[in-house]
Amino acid sequence: MSDKLNLAVIIGSTREGRWAPAPAKWIAGVAEQHGGFDVDLVDLLDADLPQHLVESDMWSTDSDPSAPVAALSERLHRADAFVVVAGEYNMSIPASLKHAIDYYMNEWAAKPVAMVTYGGKITGGQNAAQHLRQIFPELRTMTIRNTIAFPRFYQHFDERGEFTKFGESESAAKTLLDELHWWALALANARNATPMPSPF
Q: How would you classify this enzyme at the top EC level (predicted)?
């Protein structure tokens, strides 16, 4: 039985040609080396959530959800913390990520989330991060202070096609994961001590 906290690293884009798996695998690797987490890499493309939200899949009902919704629910429930990896699409987050967030309620509650973003502009996807900071509190999820951003990521590949900025971002990643672990442990202890009250 591991005494590590469970971390779900979520690949937030399902678009063809997406870059999201690269930074997601990188931060998952740093998290595995951190020592405080058991890491689950969640690809929303593989999750294959239905595009049409039917009554049985809605978090506000007691019905049995469809198999893809139930499978992702189990992985999110198991997580003590999240890292969401998202590109910035039209000044916001990918539709696939918002769709996945909206499927669930209690799975996100009383847990911390960190954000790794990227984009074609100098902001490095921080508009996406700011939108996530507006969305997650509605689900009673704690967004941590530190983020990692990769601005104009397409400019930073070497002749072998390897991204050159991961190495210099490792220190920031460790700082982010230290903060995430602190919040995850604090909130896990709080959840175990006292169930979170209903928001309704």
A: oxidoreductase
